[in-house]
Amino acid sequence: MHYFCITMSKLKRTISIPPNDPLERLIFERDLYIVDVVVRKELNMMVIFLNTHKLLNLKISDYPRLKNATQKQLDKWKLVAGGIGIHWEELDEDLSLKGFINSIKSKGERGKLVKLTNKKDMVVVE
């Protein structure tokens, strides 16, 4: 299998991506990455903030380790791999931007990808 490399000067890294993976190619060519995460156990919600001012809204119940965690544990996340993944050390859980997008796509859920139009308003992207 042939791979091509993309060097991202902003993040100072080189990543090999299989050319047959259009989602990974899209993430890296458009320089998509996670900038913040908000997890609210009582609402069964995890919101992923992207650098493009878009949000991914996910249910924590879709992720068994997150579902069984306390709010305190959920709050102890860190971004990894230049923002294309999230790691919860205490929970031994790693989740990726690609996985989040695939999850939303595979469920055919509309209204889960949100675009911020300004700091007060959000508009659903369908």
Characterization of the model:
The protein has two domains: 1-31, no CATH class; 33-124, NE0471 N-terminal domain-like (2-Layer Sandwich). Helices cover 21% and strands 37% of the residues. It has helices at 22-29, 64-67, 71-74, 97-107; strands at 4-8, 13-17, 34-40, 45-50, 54-58, 78-80, 85-88, 93-96, 113-116, 122-124. A hairpin with a 4-residue loop joins strand 1 (4-8) and strand 2 (13-17). The protein is globular and about 35 Å long. The model is unreliable at 1-12 and 115-126 (pLDDT under 50).
Describe the structure concisely for a colleague.
This protein is α+β, with helices and mostly antiparallel strands and 126 residues long.
Low-confidence stretches: 1-12, 115-126
Report the end-to-end length measured between terminal Cα atoms.
35 Å
The largest sheet, given as strand count, sense and whether it forms a barrel, is:
5 strands, antiparallel
Instruction: Write the CATH homologous superfamily of the largest domain.
Output: Uncharacterised protein PF10387, DUF2442
SSE ordering: EEHEEEHHEEEHEE
Question: How many helices does DSSP assign?
Answer: 4
Seen as an oligomer or otherwise, the chain set is: single chain
Question: What is the level-2 CATH architecture name of the largest domain?
Answer: 2-Layer Sandwich
Domains, number: 2
Helix content: 10-25%
Shape: globular
Whole-number average pLDDT?
77
Structural class: alpha+beta
Stated plainly, the CATH topology of the largest domain is called NE0471 N-terminal domain-like
Strand-residue proportion: 35-45%
CATH first level of the largest domain:
Alpha Beta
| Main sheet strand line-up | 3-4-5-9-10
